[in-house]
Amino acid sequence: MSVWFHAAVSADEQAKGSPEPGRSALRSGALTGLSYVALSLAAALAGAFLAHKFGRNLRTDGFMAAYGVYLVLVLGAQAFRMVVVPDLTRAQEEGRLGAEFRAYCLAFLLVAVPATVVTAVFAGFFGELVTGRLPHSSALVAANALPWLVPAAFLQLLAALAASALAARNSYGPAALGFALGGIAGLAFFLVAADAHGIVSLAWGLTLNGAVAVCLPVAVLLWRGSRVRRHREVPLRVRYRLWQLLYGAAVPLAVQGLYLIALRFAAGTGEGNVTSLSYAYLLAGMFTSATAFSLSLIATAPLTRRGVDTDSAAVHVVNSAWVSLALVGAAAGLVALVGGRVVTALLGQAYAGSVGDELGRLVAFLSPWMIANAAFSITYPLMFVMHRTRWLLPIAVAALAVDIPISIVGRSMWGLTGVTVALGVSTFLLVLGLMASVSRRMLMVSALGLARLSLLVGAATALAFGGASLVLSAVPAAAAGLALYALLLVAMRELGLAQAWQYVRALH
């Protein structure tokens, strides 16, 4: 297997420093963003079918608790994709992309295979662990799902690595198509198998999703490498690769660990709240993945080639956040007004009335988390582009430690809403720590810029959607609010949005 991976990118190395031309950053970002929209829509449809088919109960709580583990690994994998692109881009420039790609693949497999085996052998123990205070019936569902969800997540890790190797050459289409087709295939399988096999069939569908997402980018790499001879052998340095994997994934996993902590605290606020928070988190994550995360992915390789200092890093964070949060604001406003109705229509009567309205409100209360997560997605790759990685592990550990008392206070004061707000606060603190680890100047410039644009976008969202809701019913208010919000963005374009748009267009 390692020989195949090594040969797969040998053709890439023929063009040291000659990435594929002719693609604007917006086009590459659009391809990546659309793939995540397709993937998120597939997940939303699967969630809707899950809700209609299985309702909102202890069994769905058990599955969603296990699904939280999958999310931690998968979203951590996508964040690690941002981390590894600088290394692979430098390798592309120096003609050693094949060796780097093979070494990272072996490092992943050396972790993935034992982890999968351990999860399968001790599924019952891990099922009890992730469900916390939930009854034993929930733990049984989690135990049945985890042996499939863990390898499914590792397949996504390998897919992210293959996508990163393509990104080192400014090639984003094959990976985007692979992720989108994987989501569609997994959804189709779940729809067909749910009647016969129950809720665990969703875990099987996610495994198929991962397999498809791996196959397409790896096939492209193999096809491109089949035309030239293999690269010479180089030392693998497996221990070093594993350490790089752990070190690079520490903060992304901590970010997702904050979500797992939120789920554990949500479990103590009432039956079904774990499921509600999970759906709200997935929806909020779709907004930031389609914008900030996609922009960060397509920006990492160009920034690595040109080099970044403190001032240009702060400019990149603020400009990229402008484009991202402008779209996130519209999405949050729409959800605040019609989220309850949409949730009820998609997820069924189990989410009707106050439950659906609460889920819509949870998405609105996740707005601070969406801002913080967008800032994280944009900032984190810069740590590796600029070689500022010394404080990553302490920041990851500190964020998890600080989140626990914040979540305790939040839950004691406001219940599930407090848990949601605490997640945003802790994520903000983590992002500020990352910026401070680069330099005080970057912290000040980026924090002030983010605060300014957050106030502008927040004010525009509140004025447009909140004002419309005062005089119109929910659906007309949503349409009017969206139109007014667009007009306000046009009016504010000289306050930074126009400059941000031009900056993003010129990234490639």
Write the layout of secondary structure elements.
Blueprint: H1 2-8, H2 25-54, H3 58-94, H4 97-121, H5 123-131, H6 136-167, H7 173-197, H8 200-225, H9 238-267, H10 273-306, H11 310-347, H12 354-365, H13 367-385, H14 392-414, H15 416-438, H16 440-471, H17 474-491, H18 497-505
Features:
mainly alpha, single chain
- Strand fraction band? under 5%
Overall mean pLDDT score? 84
- Rg, rounded, reads 22 Å
Q: Number of helical runs?
A: 18
Terminal Cα span: 33 Å
Helix/strand-derived category reads mainly alpha
Work out the helicity level: over 70%
The succession of helices and strands, N to C, reads: HHHHHHHHHHHHHHHHHH
Kindly report the oligomeric state of this protein.
single chain
Low-confidence stretches: 1-22, 226-230
Number of strands: 0
The shape is: globular
How is the main sheet built?
Answer: none
Q: How is this structure best described in words?
A:
By secondary structure, this protein is mainly alpha-helical. About 85% of the residues lie in helices and about 0% in strands. The protein has 18 helices and no strands. It has helices spanning about 1-10, 25-55, 60-95, 95-120, 125-130, 135-165, 175-195, 200-225, 240-265, 275-305, 310-345, 355-365, 365-385, 390-415, 415-440, 440-470, 475-490, 495-505. Helix 11 (about 310-345) packs antiparallel against helix 13. The chain is globular, with a radius of gyration of 22 Å. The two termini are about 35 Å apart.
